[in-house]
Design a protein that fits this description.
The protein has about 140 residues and is α+β, with helices and mostly antiparallel strands. The protein has helices at about 15-40, 60, 100-105, 115-130; strands spanning about 5-10, 40, 50-55, 80, 90, 130-135, 140. The strands form 3 sheets. A 3-stranded antiparallel beta sheet has the order 1-3-4. It has a two-stranded antiparallel sheet with strand order 2-5.
């Protein structure tokens, strides 16, 4: 087992669409930094592996309260991060057989590239907007 000092809450607990997209941009930025600095790809982008960074394990951190005197347009702006790097691969590692994206199969690519994980973040944003009826994990009942 592994324990981390960084706390996160599932990305489906967004307060507004603006906050959700802000956190996805943060996760993409972290992903880019990991690839550029360490040549590592995540290979498992999903709603369960993309999280909001929170200060502590508490209800107040998970769902931030509106500050007193905040403007009507106020929204929480928690940063996003990728978690569960168990499927990550060293991009230079020979013989790696990571999960593939749809475009990977359609194009017949033989090597996983940075843009495959970026495509996964696009699909994540699309699926969240289709499957969430509102903030704080309000899912549509299809």
């Amino acid at each position: 087992r592994t324990s981390f000092t960084t706390c996160g809450v599932d990305i489906l607990w967004f307060g507004t669409a603006r906050e959700m997209f802000h956190s996805i941009i943060g996760a993409v930025t972290g992903h880019r930094n990991t690839y550029k600095r360490r040549d590592v790809l995540h290979c498992d982008v999903s709603d369960g592996n993309t999280m909001f960074l929170v200060e502590a394990i508490s209800a107040e951190s998970a769902v931030p309260p509106r500050p007193e005197g905040a403007e009507k347009e106020w929204t929480p702006m928690r940063n996003g991060m990728a978690s569960d790097w168990g499927s990550a691969i060293d991009h230079l590692e020979l013989g790696a057989s990571p999960p593939r994206t749809v475009s990977h199969f359609l194009k017949g690519d033989t090597e996983l590239e940075f843009y495959h994980d970026l495509e996964s973040y696009f699909w994540l944003a699309y699926l969240i907007t289709c499957n969430c009826a509102g903030p704080f994990n309000m899912r549509r009942d299809w």
